[in-house]
Design a protein that fits this description.
By secondary structure, the protein is of the alpha+beta class. It has one helix and three strands. A three-stranded mixed β-sheet has the order 1-2-3, with helices on one face. β1 and β2 form a beta hairpin. It is globular.
């Protein structure tokens, strides 16, 4: 999700709280909730006790958000 440019912001808030903002590739994406849950689960796996993930379309996703690693997948 990072290489695809879906994760658009990560902030550490307080001692053990991480805030993540994501913008899926399109508003009708059926995997939005699954991706939010995957981010929370991964953060828990690495020891983050509290994670907040929000989805926003304030700045729409576009292919310019792809990293060079995503272009070779």
């Amino acid at each position: 999700m990072v290489d695809m440019g879906i994760i658009t912001k990560v902030e550490v808030r307080g001692d053990q709280t991480v805030f993540v903002e994501m913008t899926p590739t399109f508003t009708g994406c059926p995997a939005i909730k699954m991706m939010e849950n995957m981010v929370v689960e991964r953060l828990h796996e690495i020891g983050i006790k509290k994670a907040e993930v929000i989805t926003t379309f304030d700045k729409p996703w576009n292919s310019n958000k792809l990293t060079s690693a995503a272009c070779f997948v």
